[in-house]
Amino acid sequence: MELSPVARRAFAGLLKARTGQELSASRHWRIETALKPLLKDREFPSLDSLAAGLANPADRNLAEAVVEALLNHETFFFRDQAAFTQLMAGPIDALAAARAARRRLSIWCAGCSSGQEAYSLAMAFAEQGDRWNGWTIDIFGTDISAGVIGRASEGSFTQFEIQRGLPIRQMMRWFAPEGENWRATPELRRMVRFDRHNLLDAPPVANVDLILCRNVLLYFGAEERVRVFDGLAAAIASDGFLMLGAGETVLGSTIRFDPDFVHRGLYRPVA
Prior knowledge:
Blueprint: H1 5-19, H2 29-42, H3 47-53, H4 60-70, H5 81-87, H6 90-98, E1 104-110, H7 116-126, E2 136-143, H8 146-154, E3 156-157, H9 159-163, H10 168-174, E4 175-178, E5 181-184, H11 186-189, E6 192-196, E7 208-213, H12 222-235, E8 236-244, E9 257-259, E10 266-269
Parallel strand pairs: 1-2, 1-7, 2-6, 7-8
Antiparallel strand pairs: 3-5, 4-5, 8-10, 9-10
Helix pairs in contact: 1-3, 1-4, 2-4
């Protein structure tokens, strides 16, 4: 399907204006794949006509639908298992010791997509037996997409999604078949909560012990990345931990965080 340079710039400009995320040249192939269902649903004959439709003030929902379609919602349970294993050892041990008096841990999964990361954390805590008896473990997931946040709140996953990264033992323990999908048990759903949030806006939480913002910053330009790090720094406790994706770093993007040289791949706020 032909896509003119004008239409390509219109879609990329809309995505950046609404979310701060860049649709780089290497990702332009996603435009046709992502927007094809919207073309059919809205009965646009071409991508160029869809781009032109964005200028129609009578169709206020079209721009939001385009942005929703262009966002990358790639995620799966226990993504990068080694990172989860490390996190539940040293950093969580350190936080547990520091929070022993109040017996509460707060965790923000920023850019959580459909919630698999937050549910993975909930399972990891729940399966540590009596260690967390008497503790409040607050796991909060946010994403800019209303669609995926709705799905995350429901805790309902397709057969394909439930099998990605989730061992059969945990699937049977924490999820039950519901129609063609699998839904998280009420016990698991009570451990997590979700809300919509744009990472370019003021943070929705404060004094958080642990922030996971993994594989999100890859899509931001340099200026927007600085703004996101500023928001994360404003939200985190002075002795908290920040975890990024394996291909992400704070180096060259912010002076608000330093690498944690004890726990590889994690970062600490600068005092």
